[in-house]
UniProtKB/TrEMBL annotation:
InterPro entries: Ntn_hydrolases_N (IPR029055), Pen/GL7ACA/AHL_acylase (IPR014395), Penicillin_amidase_A-knob (IPR043147), Penicillin_amidase_dom1 (IPR023343), Penicillin_amidase_N_B-knob (IPR043146), S45 (IPR002692)
EC number: 3.5.1.-
Entry's Gene Ontology molecular function annotations: hydrolase activity
Family from the record: Belongs to the peptidase S45 family.
SUPFAM superfamilies: N-terminal nucleophile aminohydrolases (Ntn hydrolases) (SSF56235)
Protein name stated in the entry: Penicillin acylase family protein
Keyword terms of this UniProt record: Hydrolase, Zymogen
PANTHER family: ACYL-HOMOSERINE LACTONE ACYLASE QUIP, PEPTIDASE S45 PENICILLIN AMIDASE
Organism: Streptomyces thermocarboxydus
EC class (word): hydrolase
Length: 697
């Protein structure tokens, strides 16, 4: 067996090998060479060992993945693969072999700065990386917020703050069938919105062997191309379906001479699995973690003695919360879909591969060169009571067990178009909260403006910044009695009512609107009627982002301003006061002056620089999410953009926020950022003659 690594002008690896297994080894090798520091951070995060070199700030995460049994679940999933799908298990082992080869003697400067050496990957490590990456993706901590809000503000608060989904959720995807394109062949386009990391969470790559030739976006540390790919005859893409497939159970636990017991729904106390683990913390004493698992699942919050600082309600037991999630129950993470996706030739092949998918639950779009299209949900969602889907449920009461799996819904196209943007679409029966419909409606409206589209036209949709969710706040402005306003406030009101509602980086009006929005959010959060929810319960720090009141108000503002009543709060008075506040000290610059990229890095850069200003906002198609009331900085945004052209794959386009290389100082570390900022895309190069051979391997 032999293979070779080629590079295109953007440094993107194109890998060619004599066989599928050798290609997997090559993918692991080049990923380790290009992204060694990144994937080692992810390995440590998946194993709960990141605090050992990154410090106490990572301790809460490490404790969560230990208690959630992430590494053990990955081992279970590998064992199931080896039993039921030995070909995929062997392919996975080949990838890990390549990773270990690439990490051997790796000289990325971050290793020296952190005082850590590259470790060794096990065959189950990619499964653990995938699982830890998506552990919080379905947002089970939202159930903690609903419990908290209902307990402090009443049951109506759950709906008020939902705003049809957390404002930070987002990914766009759309399919234009051949009847609506200039070539007569379909185009699939979109952009996944995730935390922007440096290096990026997606790796542009090409994998070619006698069985297949696929370009796409891989997840570093995981073999194949799971989410976005183009084989030449079929292309696919996904968005988060916003399905609810993780449950939280309140557990009654007690210590006995033999260990820990949990009370089941049949009234019987049963032995829970228990052991302890030690988490090393750089610069501090190690932390011992008690790991407990009941018949429902691993206990991720509390224990037999409850939480530190918790005072249970009279008659209530100390708090312990168990997490039940599908891979822990089934031993299947959906990796059996990865090879079938690479081998896909038609949408029917993608469809069959999607049947094997498990987690996370996604909406899939696909099209092929024979005119076939696909629009469906893929993944595993348990059938259980409605109460499980909304809040924590008592493990000791019957009626909260899982009763099989939902059949995943399907949908068609509407006038040759399909749009997915985390809205209530085909996945509606499987979820509780979804993204507001603005992005989906805007994409559909833009696509309706012409009958024929080309791949080159798609960048204009990616970069659209119209903010439909501004309407409720602007409606409140319009309804204000102007005689009650000062002169500056009246002038600011008139300016905002004339604003075109585009959140462009160069727009001073967008900056003023954002300042007003944040002022309204902060003032609502200070209202006595909401004070009871301002102090979160003493849950581990990793869950705090879901429990903070100000971000919750910021992301639900549209709904809170539009609801018939908001706990008696005088919303016109709040808006008037916020308008006067901003009029007295308006922002001096543009939206891009404060709405800047804030990528996550495991270590701060050695050469810190001011990050670029961004267009967009969390409800724009260009979804660059700030946290109204907290910061204008954007930690989330398009982690990649892609346009798959089924007429000619070489007319496809893509871009990532930084570059193909994870090595600081590499010419390809940040060379795509100007394109990404401008809304432009780089060509997908497929002609081997236009590539530069780096090495034979």
């Amino acid at each position: 067996m032999s293979g070779a690594i080629f590079r295109d002008p953007w440094g993107i690896p194109h890998l060619r090998a004599d066989g599928m297994r050798e290609l997997a080894r090559l993918q692991g090798l080049v990923t380790a060479r290009d992204r060694g520091w990144q994937i080692e951070v992810e390995r440590h995060r998946a194993q709960g060992t990141s605090a050992s070199f990154l410090g106490a700030g990572e301790l809460s995460w490490d404790v969560l993945v230990r208690r959630a049994r992430v590494a053990d679940t990955a081992r279970r999933c590998l064992a199931r693969l080896e039993e039921r799908d030995p070909e995929t298990a062997d392919w996975l082992r080949a990838y890990v072999t390549g990773v270990n080869e690439g990490l051997d003697g790796h000289d990325a400067p971050e290793f020296a700065r952190a005082g850590v050496l590259p470790g060794r990957w096990e065959p189950w490590t990619p499964l653990a990386v995938w699982l830890s990456t998506h552990l919080l993706f379905a947002g089970f901590p939202a159930k903690l917020w609903r419990d908290h809000a209902a307990a402090r503000l009443g049951a109506d608060a759950v709906g008020l703050f939902a705003a049809d989904g957390p404002g930070t959720s987002g990914s766009n995807g759309w399919l234009v069938a051949g009847e609506r394109t200039v070539t007569g062949q379909a185009v699939v386009a979109g952009d996944p919105h995730r935390y922007i990391e440096d290096p990026g969470v997606y790796q542009q790559i090409r994998l070619a062997c006698p069985e297949f030739d696929v370009v796409g976006l891989a997840v570093p540390g995981v073999p194949g191309i799971a989410h976005f790919g183009h084989t030449g005859t079929v292309a696919w893409a996904i968005t988060n379906a916003m399905a609810d497939y993780q449950d939280l159970y309140r557990e009654r636990l007690r210590r006995t001479g033999a260990g820990i017991e949990a009370l089941g729904p049949d009234g019987v106390w049963r032995r829970a699995a228990r052991h302890t683990e030690t988490v090393e913390v750089a610069g501090e004493d190690p932390v011992e973690v008690e790991v407990v698992e009941t018949e429902r699942g691993p206990v991720v919050i509390g224990g037999p003695e409850g939480l530190d600082g918790e005072v249970p309600e009279p008659g209530e037991p100390p708090l312990a919360v168990a997490l039940r999630y599908p891979p822990r129950v089934t031993g299947d993470l959906g990796f059996g879909a990865l090879l079938p996706l690479l081998r896909a030739r038609r949408v029917a092949d993608v469809d069959r591969a999607a049947d094997l998918w498990a987690e996370p639950v996604n909406v899939v779009l696909a099209a092929d060169t024979e005119g076939g299209t696909l629009h469906r949900v893929a993944g595993r969602v348990p059938v259980r009571s409605d109460a499980n889907r909304v809040r924590l449920v008592p493990a000791w009461e019957p009626g909260h067990e899982w009763r099989g799996w939902h059949e995943t819904p399907r949908a068609g196209l509407d006038d040759g178009l399909a749009v997915m943007a985390n809205q209530r679409g085909p996945a509606a029966p499987l979820g509780v909260e979804f993204a507001p419909p603005h992005r989906a409606r805007r994409i559909a409206a833009l696509l309706a403006r012409r009958h024929r589209w080309s791949a080159a036209d798609m960048a204009a949709i990616h970069s659209d910044t119209h903010l439909a969710s501004a309407a409720p706040l602007l409606d409140h402005l319009a309804a204000l009695d102007t005689p009650d306003l000062t002169g500056p406030a009246s002038a600011l009101r008139a300016r905002l009512l004339a604003w075109d509602r585009y959140m462009d980086a160069g727009s001073a009006d967008a900056a003023v609107f954002a300042a007003l929005r944040s002022a309204v959010v902060r003032r609502l959060a200070a209202e006595p009627a909401l004070a009871a929810a301002a102090t979160p319960p003493p849950y581990p720090d990793v869950f705090r982002p879901w429990l903070a009141l100000v971000p919750r108000i910021g992301f639900a503002l549209e709904h809170l301003l539009s609801a018939r009543d908001l706990f008696g709060i005088d919303r016109p008075a709040v808006v008037r006061a916020a308008l006067e506040e901003v009029a007295a000290a308006p922002p001096a610059g543009t939206w891009g002056d404060t709405h800047r990229l804030a990528p996550w890095r495991a270590l701060p850069p050695e050469d810190p620089r001011e990050e670029p200003g961004l267009s967009g906002d969390h409800d724009c198609v260009l979804c660059t999410s700030a946290v109204p009331g907290v910061t204008d900085l954007a930690a989330r945004g398009p982690a990649a953009r892609y346009v798959w052209d089924l007429a000619r794959r070489e007319d496809s386009r893509w871009v990532v926020p930084h570059g193909a290389s994870g090595r600081p100082g590499s010419p390809h570390h940040r060379d795509q950022q100007p394109l990404w900022l401008a809304g432009d895309l780089a060509p997908v190069v497929t002609d081997w003659a236009r590539l530069t051979k780096e090495t034979d391997v």
